[in-house]
Amino acid sequence: MARPKGSKNKPKIVPANANASPPPPANHNQLTDEQEQALFEQHKTKYEHFLALKKKADADFKNACKLAKSELGDGALDDIKLSIQLETPEGEAKFKEEMDRKARVARWKGLPIGMQASLFDEDRTPGDERAFGEGKRAGMAGKERRAPYDAATSQFRKWLEGYDAGQEVNRSLMKDAIKPPKAKADVPATDPFDDALPAGQSDKDWEAAAPESVA
């Protein structure tokens, strides 16, 4: 409906929300040319928004990879990927299968790696020790201090102890990172012309040897 003449009420602007849920697919046969243009502009805005986020995320990811390699060496990314793989039962099973296969081929080639059928036996690590290791890794990663064990168990306490130990390692890294550089030893001021004097000769000797001025 048209705005009455002389009305001070301005028409409201309906912004395009890039994060809003997409509307049901429009039937292009039922859209007017202006409606289709408006729909195009909204999709263009959303595309540009998420494209900018993707570019920033890609740049941040590349910088994180470069930093990891500079601080941990060229194999850092492979180690990180392996660690992520081992956090799931499926990834752990795949890793064990791959290692067993490599061990079998290595044994065929005569490498002294032992004669056991599998490199991985049943985990016999005591529960407290395993909980401590889990907590320590969580503390190093900066995750939430919440043990996945019942509060009445010893594993709960060991997990928290491990978490605190991991956090302490992080604090030591921060302390090393903010240490001020060592102050340079004070160098005594020297006369730049000292090297011009013969060895063992002082300024007084030099002045005494100088020719007298002619009156």
Q: Overview of this structure, please?
A:
The protein is mainly α. It has helices at 33-72, 76-85, 89-108, 127-141, 154-177, 203-209. The longest helix is centred in the N-terminal third of the chain and has 40 residues, at 33-72. The protein is extended. The model has no long low-confidence stretch (mean pLDDT 78).
Keywords summarizing the entry:
extended, mainly alpha, 215 residues
Percent range of helical residues: 40-55%
The proportion of residues in beta strands is: under 5%
Basic shape: extended
Question: How many beta-strand elements?
Answer: 0
**Helix count from the secondary structure assignment:** 6
H-E string: HHHHHH
Low-confidence stretches: none
Average pLDDT reading: 78
In short:
The chain has helices at residues 33-72, 76-85, 89-108, 127-141, 154-177, 203-209. By secondary structure, it is an all-alpha fold.
